[in-house]
Amino acid sequence: MTALLESLCPMAVWNPPVLEIPDYRPLVHPATDFHLAGRPLVLAPSVFCGPVPQLFAGQAGAVVMVYPALSNPVDAVGLWDLSANARRVDAPVPPALAALLGRTRAVVLCVIADHPACTTTQLAQRAGISPASASEHATTLRSAGLTALTRERKAALHTLTHLGLALLNTNGLAPAGT
User: Fold this and answer.
1) Is the pTM of this model over 0.90?
2) What Cα–Cα distance (Å) separates residue 39 from each residue in 17, 42, 79, 114, 146?
3) Sequence-ordered list of residues with C-beta below 8 angstroms from that of 95, at least 6 positions apart, any chain
4) What is the pLDDT of residue 74?
5) In Å, how far are 46, 87, 108, 161, 169 from 91, measured between CA atoms?
6) CB 55 within 8 A of CB 23
7) Which helix (H) or strand (E) holds 42?
8) How far apart are alpha carbons 62 and 37 in whole angstroms?
9) Which of these, 16, 40, 52, 157, is most buried using a 10 Å CB contact count?
10) Can you tell me the mean pLDDT for 108-132?
């Protein structure tokens, strides 16, 4: 626990048994000294917190200290950036994916990824294949757990599953022999 509290320096300084928060301006509590008096302290990192930690009353008498999760708030932007390996809409079919699934089935998977909730007719048009072929490839991908099908009235809507997304987002750089 000591190492954890010491890692919060300089925004919080642990001088046992006192946790000092320089520049603390209470939002809720009128006094700058806040005594735990045996109550548990819950540490809650947040990317939405300002530079100075804040204290709040939690459940069951606990005290919650919300503090900045990152030392530089600009770094928080990276949390919402798409992975460098993430597929971009209408990107070309990766050669490794075409080798694994076959070119047409890989195209079908990519179209479903790029156009979620597309109908079989739309899938066929975007993949440049017949509706029967699109249905067959979509069925195979669904059986493999890469896509899912939902029905809305008479339309069959194709979407990517988490497994399908993971397959598309791999960079194909697995070590040889694996």
Assistant:
1) no
2) 13, 10, 33, 51, 48
3) 172
4) 61
5) 34, 7, 13, 18, 12
6) no
7) strand 41-46
8) 10
9) 157
10) 92
Taking residues 95-102, report their average pLDDT.
Answer: 90
Q: How far apart are CA 59 and CA 174, in angstroms?
A: 46
Q: Are 123 and 155 within 8 A, CB to CB?
A: no
Helix extents (H) in the chain:
2-6, 95-101, 103-114, 120-127, 131-143, 162-169
Nearest to 93 by CA among 108, 81, 83, 115: 108
Structure-block tokens of residue 49: 């917190």
CA distance 155 to 151: 6
- Of 11, 71, 69, 5, the closest CA to residue 36 belongs to 5
Q: How many residues does the chain have?
A: 178
